[in-house]
Design brief:
With 418 residues, the chain is of the alpha/beta class. The chain contains 16 helices and 13 strands. It binds pyridoxal-5'-phosphate and zinc ion.
């Protein structure tokens, strides 16, 4: 892996060789998140826009020379990546905008964005010969790890809060993971998972602890820019919990700038739920994310419930360094965005996915975007992940099913009333 220069601590700046530390800079407890730094001159000799144009591998592995894995690394067989980027003219028109696209990562194998990161975790764990992989998760990272592990028969142990939506827990059980339902919050599950990994020597996938997760997540912006013929969008909307996705998007864009494949850095707009708005508050008030106290983290959008965002250093930089912004939206705005997005472009999102669109609605109303901005909204999770919230969202929208006797006469009676 000569294309990796070093791992750089984002707190103290210390640089480590990849075999020197496994996850974090040891000088800051569990907080010393590091960033993978590459040799772009070397990478440029191995991959180019032209080589990509001829590459028929439409998965994240088409970008292998830009990923923290060996050129000959075996990769899991599930088809991860190259999700559709839909043109959404009706959404754009409704908001007084010219160009909106929706990237649908609800289409990935386990139905969330997390597949991009968990795929890298499985490759890295197998590189190390790990017997067991573990993660804590609000649900989707776990489902992603679980599914990808199943595809390569890799044993794994998962820690999720016991209140995780049943669909996500079902995924874990169906894929055959060892599942620990933690009687507590995601933050409690995270701490327990770290302790368990240290105690048993398991390979740890945890977000913002394992530095390679960012590297998987960045593939989404490679795809967006390639799907737009390397004409980068002006603004990207993404929901934020721990901040690993937003940090990953920023990382991918920095890679593309360093390679000279795009010539402008898009503004990144992070959208949080009001009850879990640590990053929004820190950004708005200029607070230090390393010393700011945790928030409650309560929101209907379970995937972005994070009292203390684990990847807060990268998450803040993604917005400040791109002239972006943080926005917070209420749970009602999130739920209203589910049918609005589904009806406007045909993409059914879970609450955390629809949060990004709720953010665009607010940004358009507040003039945070201008009418000729080229805008991408990222849907991070499929709506079938959380049926309870979906049903609540249509109830709020006043949409009801009709009950009808199985005969045409009764159908006519019902139709006349619609
Ligand atoms: C994990 C997740 C997010 C947020 O990602 P972070 O890296 O925690 O900020 C958003 N949406 C969905 C559906 C997710 O699963
Ligand atoms: Zn350090």
């Amino acid at each position: 892996m000569d294309h990796i220069k070093h791992l750089k601590c984002l707190i103290c700046g210390k640089e480590y060789a990849t075999d020197e530390i496994e996850y974090i800079c040891p000088d800051h407890g569990n907080e010393g998140i590091v960033d993978v730094r590459y040799d772009y001159n070397l990478i440029k000799m191995r991959i180019s826009k032209e080589s990509l144009a001829k590459n028929k591998d439409y998965t994240i592995w088409r970008y292998k020379p830009l990923l923290p894995i060996a050129a000959d690394a075996a990769v899991p067989p599930l088809s991860i990546g190259w999700t559709p980027l839909y043109d959404a003219p009706r959404l754009a028109e409704k908001l007084g905008l010219k160009q909106v696209w929706v990237k649908d990562d609800g289409r990935l194998p386990t139905a969330s964005f997390k597949d991009r990161a968990s795929a890298i975790a499985v490759v890295k764990a197998q590189e190390k010969g790990a017997e067991i992989i573990t993660t804590a998760s609000t649900g989707n990272a776990a489902a992603a790890l679980s599914g990808i592990c199943a595809s390569v028969e890799q044993p794994n142990v998962i820690f999720v809060p016991e209140a995780a939506p049943p669909a996500k827990i079902a995924q874990l059980l169906v894929y055959g993971s060892t599942v620990m339902l933690v009687k507590g919050t995601y933050d409690d599950a995270f701490e327990l998972c770290l302790e368990a990994a240290a105690e048993y020597g398991w390979y740890n996938r945890n977000t913002a602890y394992n530095p390679y997760m960012t590297e998987g997540k960045k593939t989404a912006v490679y795809e967006i820019c390639e799907q737009l013929d390397w004409n980068a969008p002006g603004v990207i909307f993404v929901s934020v919990g721990d901040g690993c996705i937003i940090g990953g998007l920023h990382k991918g864009l920095k890679d593309l700038m360093a390679l000279g494949w795009i010539d402008q850095m898009p503004r990144i707009i992070g959208v949080q739920a009001e009850g879990s708005a640590f990053m929004y508050e820190a950004w708005r008030d200029g607070e230090d994310v390393l010393t700011k106290a945790p928030v409650s983290g309560i929101t209907v959008a379970d995937s972005i419930s994070a009292g203390l965002p684990r990847d807060r250093i990268k998450a803040l930089a993604a917005v400040t360094e791109t002239n972006g912004a943080y926005i917070s939206v209420s749970d009602d705005e999130i739920l209203e965005a589910i049918p609005a997005l589904a009806r406007g472009v045909g993409v059914f999102a879970e609450p955390a996915g629809a949060t990004a669109y709720a953010g665009l609605i607010k940004a358009a109303a507040e003039g945070l975007v201008s009418s000729d901005d080229r805008i991408v909204v990222l849907n991070t999770g499929n709506g079938l992940k959380d049926i309870k919230s979906a049903m609540k969202s249509v109830e709020m929208a006043g949409t009801k099913a009709s009950r009808v006797e199985p005969n045409l006469a009764d159908l006519k009676r019902v139709m006349a009333k619609l």
